[in-house]
């Protein structure tokens, strides 16, 4: 049967996959969602993208988008109803620079905070200090308007929130005790939103040879 929708290979809890689903849902771009087991990756995923990580979006014409930020940009350039790519303060290059820092500096620290058993005590201590510094900087950036770039949610907010959420879930009591009221409120607004509920819906694991469920058939507003 001819493929009629793009195919998104995803994993529910992966922050990279979450950010991709956020943009697809917000843009209202329908796709076939294939929820995969990262410990038993289907051959179809590896054929599309030998790197074997999610998300991977296979378009109707066979083109493959392998990076989560590229999936976001693809979706929002097709339909950006709330102007995530055009913040009221700053620019797209400014947002991309912050996202790059998140995906490098903060993600490096986050992994060591989340899986301390995999690293030396010195590495973990250094990572914890780096994470606290980064999150305090975000809290400062959010103080004026509640969002990272102006008055409304933007690409940067949606690209960073899944990673901040992952950090907050390591030790929720410790997270709640931190002096970051703007950051905590920013994260909670998103968690309480209809958009978050849609992108975090649970789907059964994809069975090769079958069609996955349709995801993001209609746009959902920002928080």
Automatic annotation (TrEMBL):
Residues 4-83 form the GST N-terminal domain. GO terms for molecular function: transferase activity. Keywords: Transferase. The keyword NAD does not apply. GO terms for cellular component: cytoplasm. SUPFAM superfamilies: GST C-terminal domain-like, Thioredoxin-like. Transmembrane segments: none annotated. Pfam families: GST_C_2, GST_N_3. This is Glutathione S-transferase. It comes from Chryseobacterium sp. B5. The lineage of its organism: Bacteria, Pseudomonadati, Bacteroidota, Flavobacteriia, Flavobacteriales.
